[in-house]
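Much of the work behind modern protein science is quiet bookkeeping, done one molecule at a time. The protein below has been through that process, and both of its lines are reproduced in full.


***
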Amino acid sequence: MSLYKRNSTWWMDVRVNGKRNRLSTGTKNKKLAESCYAKIVVDLQTGKWFPDESKKRTFEELRDRYMKEHSQVNKSPKSSLRDGTSFKTSFFIVQWNDLGRNYASKNL
């Protein structure tokens, strides 16, 4: 972990789980940059830097966000429609397979 100056702004170099992250402190003041850096280091050591967001979201929320922010914006209407139906199709395939297994086991 280090603090360095790039152009006129102070940056920090931090390694988390073996990955190198370069973050701007957003300041030209060295003392303020050192305090920002110290806070980040403390947050990393206490585990507050990367909160576990996966426990707060459901699959449906992630699917809706993907469709709204990526698929509908960056893809053609046909591809976007295919993305939307593929989520539904995979859900119904699982449901159908479970239903088929239950039906088959009851009739044996």
Q: What stands out?
A: The first helix runs from residue 30 to 46. Strands lie at 2-6, 9-16, 19-24. Residues 2-51 form one domain. The helical segments are 30-46, 59-74, 77-106.
